[in-house]
Amino acid sequence: MASRKVFNQCLVLPILLMNCSVLLVQCGRPHSTEGEDLVTATCKHTLHFQVCNSSLRSVPISGKTSDLRVLAEIALNLSTAYAAETLTCVHELQSNSSAANNIYVSRCLRDCEEEFSEAIENLQHSKEALANGDCDKVDTLISAAMSDAETCEDGFKDLQQIEDYYSTSPLTERNCHFSELCSNALAITKLLV
Ligand SMILES: *[C@@H]1O[C@H](CO)[C@@H](O)[C@H](O)[C@H]1NC(C)=O
Ligand SMILES: *[C@@H]1O[C@H](CO)[C@@H](O)[C@H](O)[C@H]1NC(C)=O
Ligand SMILES: *[C@@H]1O[C@H](CO)[C@@H](O)[C@H](O)[C@H]1NC(C)=O
Description:
GO molecular function: enzyme inhibitor activity
CATH architecture of the domain at 68-191: Up-down Bundle
Protein name: Pectinesterase inhibitor domain-containing protein
Oligomer: single chain
Family: Belongs to the PMEI family.
Largest sheet: none
CATH class of the domain at 68-191: Mainly Alpha
Strand content: under 5%
Bound molecules: 2-acetamido-2-deoxy-beta-D-glucopyranose
Number of helices: 8
Order of helices and strands: HHHHHHHH
Shape: elongated
Domain Pectinesterase inhibitor: 34-188
Helix content: over 70%
CATH topology of the domain at 68-191: Butyryl-CoA Dehydrogenase, subunit A, domain 3
InterPro entries: Invertase/methylesterase_inhib (IPR035513), PCW_Enzyme_Inhibitor (IPR052421), Pectinesterase_inhib_dom (IPR006501)
């Protein structure tokens, strides 16, 4: 229950704010103030500054580029890599016999497997759209990837409503972090418009 609440907070808030972000984007491209590099200036336009700052900096070229488009691509790469890792995690959970033997849990995991495969595809297509300068399409595809993760999480939420069966999602933290990475990638691509 607690983890569910945290997830809802982490997911719903960014989605609400994202609808307003059209207004925020009017501030234009990030401009660095003295002593501030492009990563810091860019991450200030995202909803999850710490995640943005630390994830982008885990890729060394982030600190060397002066091209916002490169940061956007890195943000998408990070989201894609995390989705792929999560898919591996789903496969590991599926190989846990006590989880796999539960018909409800295994159904949820199969859904998550499908959702994350789709999320990876959506994000790969979003990189192509970014390369083609089609920012609207990038938006749509990242948003689709975010709802894929949400659908995965919702499966477990529905499961909790089944009488006599209480199980929390083993993927809440991952779904949450994935949603933050995507939200950041979305905010960065919006700066390119
Ligand atoms: C951003 O991350 C770097 C490296 O992880 C850290 O040294 C720096 O303090 C962070 N910036 C802010 C403003 O938190
Ligand atoms: C993003 O990932 C692709 C595929 O792994 C790689 O070729 C490309 O160099 C990455 N982009 C950046 C900016 O790191
Ligand atoms: C396997 O699944 C059961 C039930 O979902 C869980 O209690 C247990 O911690 C899992 N084991 C591993 C190694 O993940």
